Amino acid sequence: MPRSLLVRASLGLVLSFQGLAHAGQEPPASEPAPEDPALPEFILPTVEVIGKVIPDAPPDSAQRRDPTGAITVIDARERAGEARDTAELLGGSASLVVQDSGGYGQSKSLVVRGASANGVLVFLDGIPLNGAGGIADLSLVPVALVERLEILRGAAGARYGAGGLGGAVNIVTRAPSSRLLSSGEVTYGSFDTVMGNVAASGALLGGQALVLLHGGRSQGDFSFRIDELPALDDNPLTEEVRTRNDARGGGALVKYQRGLDSGGRVDLLAELSLEDRALAGTVQNPQLSRRQDQTRVSLGGRWGRPFGDTGEASARGFFRRDWMEVLGGSTGVDAGAQRYTVGGVELEGRAVVGRRNALAITLAASSEAVTQATGAQAASWWRASVMAMDELSLFSERVKVVPSLRVERVGQYSLLSPKLGASVDLGRGFGVRANAGQSHRAPSFLELYIRQGLLLPNPDLKPERALSVDAAGLWQDDAWSVTAGGFAAVYENLIAYEMYPPMLAKPYNFAAARVWGAEVEVEARPRPWLTATTSYAWTRTQNRYGDPRYFGKELPYRPRHKWVGRVRAGPDWLNARTEVLVQSAQLINRVGETRLSLPSRTWVSVGASSTFLRRPDLTVSFDLKNLLDARTADYTGMPLPGRAAYVTFSVALEPLRTASSEDSHVASPP
């Protein structure tokens, strides 16, 4: 078997960096349009995709960045009018668990394959959204912006950088069209929730542009049930009302792209997000006056062009600044106003070398800084990385071997992330894939340097490390796609807070854990008017910390079972849908006592929509969430809303006719 070019290059890199140990962060490039000239395709049939397969995948798509990875693509255009936020779109994916603070506009984060929320990278068109605390808040990304979601489960360090212990999610926003298109949407529903957006797209200055404005608010009050004496068995539940759960926000998205005479293209992006929300606190520790104001400004630009028939190059830059202030609350706990800034550049080249190798090299550098008013605290550092990936094709491209390696410096930490992937096309729609890799998460600024009320920093923290493997089999034809596989990971040097007398907490590297499980995803499209998808994940976790009280017990907030089934049937003029989510109980602490756990939940949602008028297209949708009125709680004891109903009215002028047409980027009614 011919040796991969990257195997030889990797050996040289490893010898040159013997003192390096762990990996950093490379944000994916901003989204190019499908008409960009591209290299010959190296997209593997073993990649798992729920939703529509994206033809002619662009160079920075998840399929091209990690050809053998466990990837799911969700087309948000197929969910138009029914999802309230981005987290709702992600909640149906295998091994993704949403941690919800309850209600519209409240904080939402992801746990992927047992990795903590700060071990999952989230990007907005390649711009990293993981802030100074290391956790990306999905509530700040409204669904109106989203065209599709690209999800990579498993080791993401080699291709996406530090922080990708459990995986990475790239939120691809709506792209402009060359035709004049405009659309609007308004939703009203339970808890006095109102959301809306307007968008316009068309030719501008020799290119094409998109402008989108969005906003929403919710009173957020809802009833919930509480066990006031959880230490006692069979204690009756009492019903209370969740107050001070209101939120409001808005923002804008502006995108522009233009083709160049050289055959390349320039893409520009600007995004603004504003949010003001009450922080109600947990049921056991309610807050009477605490609020959070947050503003985000994101800017991005990308230039790319092909070179000959087998090469392409790109350069991109990004900038993001967050302003956050927490007001009110208990004395001594307020963090004060905080400003977080990140910016960077990335250069990437790809080329087909010989008959069997496709080599990619990426150079990236970025700077991060955080400033907090309390005590005039501030911290900053630089990141720099080199990534190389080779895609070796054998046996008429039926076998793919993909080694990749990232060497990165993150502040004072030197990081090394290798990954090896392989896939085999067995014919007749069958295939297998497997991956093994190492990823890391450098401690966040807040964990290292900045005191937040009762939370102390620790500058001696070490990076977290994850060793991950996964394998899966796939079968697909024109109407069906089935993927089934397993995964395992070992997490080391996990950072966790420990009490520090009298009332303070300080982070330490003391925890270790094992995670293993199985995943199944199925999609069926037997008729143009009928789509059904289902996913199931079985996840086991085990605490490996040496304390005998916790050794061998499951990690908190990691449900063992999760199943989601979804069916959509009917033509555009009248269709119906239903979705069922079943999630098992989850522990709330490492002691492992069953009575101190969040109960299992079964959420059933139903809806219908009708495009009852053409040119312009007018669509009305109705959705009933949590049909069975399940009353449950989520992350850190936050109660979740019960049954809720929403009505959405949409209008589109000169709408798109098919999702696969040249300009199929602006969402049209279902």
From TrEMBL:
Keyword annotations of the record: Cell outer membrane, Membrane, Receptor, Signal, TonB box, Transmembrane, Transmembrane beta strand, Transport
Membrane topology according to the record: Multi-pass membrane protein
Annotated ranges, domain TonB-dependent receptor plug: 65-168
Predominant subcellular localization, coarse grouping: membrane
SUPFAM superfamilies for this protein: Porins
Span of domain TonB-dependent receptor-like beta-barrel: 288-627
GO cellular component: cell outer membrane
Biological process (GO), any one: siderophore transmembrane transport
Protein localization: Cell outer membrane
PANTHER family: HEMOGLOBIN AND HEMOGLOBIN-HAPTOGLOBIN-BINDING PROTEIN 1-RELATED, TONB-DEPENDENT OUTER MEMBRANE RECEPTOR
Family: Belongs to the TonB-dependent receptor family.
Descriptive protein name: TonB-dependent receptor
Organism: Corallococcus terminator
